[in-house]
Amino acid sequence: MSTLPLPFDPIDRAATNWEQVWGDATRMRLATSVMRVQQLLINSYDEVLRPHGLTFARFEALALLRFSRAGSLPMKIIGDRLQVHPTSVTNIVERLSAAGLVERRPNPRDGRGVLAELTDHGRTVVEAAAKDLMQRDFSLGALDDAEVGAVVATFTRLRHSVGDFE
Length: 166
Fold this sequence. Notes:
Blueprint (H helix, E strand, L loop, with lengths): L9 H12 L4 H24 L6 H12 L4 E3 H8 L3 H13 L3 E6 L2 E9 L1 H16 L9 H17 L5
């Protein structure tokens, strides 16, 4: 992770190179911009969440549990909702469990399955972490509400087109 801004726009540099070798870079520019913004935002969120002992991935899991009716979910559901591999879910939940933020327990509806359940401490931490992310405006303060709405609408359309939801 770079701590200082680059002296040039890396997406513009990549687009110039792309066009010299492969042609039109319009969609490559958008794709790499999306990925770069995602990396920058994740780094920013991890910085905000570090004092809470969280990464953004762990925060997402806690928030998902916080929003569930019972405060618990099967590991498979967590993976499906967060779109991460089962091994990653296991790692996330194990780290949250070691920190006392969730408990792992057998799923009463599935003898082989495991539930991750939010603890009282986990609820306190996720509430404080969410407050800090909101205070930081999710690092999106450069956009006004109309711009945020337009980006969300565009990404929703893209997510739908690639089968993220019906």
